Amino acid sequence: MKKVVEFTLAFMLLAASAAVAAETSGKIQSIDPSDRAVVLDDGTKLWMAEGLPIDALKEGARIKASYEERDGKNVVITYEVE
Fold it and tell me: Residue-wise over 26-63: b if at least 16 C-beta within 10 A, else e?
C-alpha cells in the first residue's frame, strides 16, 4: 500500500510540474508595459511572466516565445529576440 501511495504522489507531482508549454514567434506589433503584454503581428497576445524583462522588447522586433496558459492568458515563460 505504501508503494502505491508513493507512486501516486510522485505521479501527481510530475503531472503538476509538467505544464504544457507552447511556442510561438512573430513580429511585435504593440507593447503595453503597464499590462506587461505584447501583441504579435498575427494578433496573438502574450503576457510576460513576473521576472522577465519587458523593457528589452521593441515594436517591430521578432521574438520566439514559450508560454503556458494561466487563467486564460498566454503567459510567456521564456523568450528570445530573433
Answer: bebeebeeeebbbbbeeeeebbbeeebebeebeeeeeb
3 state SS for 29-55: EEEECCCCEEEECCCCEEEECCCCCCC
Mean pLDDT (the chain) is 83
Q: Give residue-wise pLDDT tens across range 34-72.
A: 999 999 999 999 999 999 999 889 999 999 999 999 999
Domains of the chain, with CATH numbers? 20-81 (2.40.50.320)
